[in-house]
Write a structure and sequence with these properties.
Length: about 160
């Protein structure tokens, strides 16, 4: 064993107690509610509100988040965020992207670039915008216009998929 390997092992062992992680089922139960803060650059949709569960589309996969979830930071894909406020009250939002931070104290912070309630979106208007973005992406515009149109196509397809569920 060389000196660098040994010193790396000693350093890792010195910090091991500080790096100990537990699963949500092993964590002490502090609450049965998840405290949600869901913000956009221009307004707060939820600000410290107790909810039962939040389902979201992250780059690592779809997630269901409850109280006492393992702390993590997730990048959001364009997709649906479902907020289950209580057993019979559920709200769904389409987000274009952002980040979700799950904290050890059963708080969830969602920062999204844009979000819209699914009930406010029209399948016909989304299809029309998708068709226009596809024409622009395939057209004779500049490379910058085509790249922007490809991003629009991806988002409109995700919205269309969300509305078809």
């Amino acid at each position: 064993m060389n000196v660098f390997t040994r010193s790396a092992r000693v350093a890792a062992n010195a910090f091991r107690p500080a790096l100990a992680r537990t699963y949500a089922s092993e964590a002490p139960a502090t609450t049965d509610k998840l405290r949600l803060t869901f913000v956009l650059p221009y307004k707060a949709l939820y600000k410290g509100v107790d909810v039962q569960q939040v389902n979201l589309a992250a780059t690592s996969g779809d997630m269901g988040i409850l109280a006492n979830h393992v702390p993590t930071i997730e990048q959001l894909n364009p997709g649906v965020i479902e907020v289950i406020e209580s057993g019979d009250v559920t709200k769904k939002f389409f987000v274009s992207g952002g980040f979700a931070t799950i904290n050890p104290d059963s708080t969830l912070n969602i920062n999204a670039v844009e979000a819209a309630a699914l009930e406010d979106l029209s399948v016909e208007r989304v299809q029309s915008a998708l068709d226009e973005a596809q024409r622009t992406a395939a057209g004779a515009g500049s490379e910058q216009e085509k790249a922007a149109a490809k991003v629009e196509v991806e988002v409109y397809e995700a919205i269309k998929h969300a509305l078809s569920k």
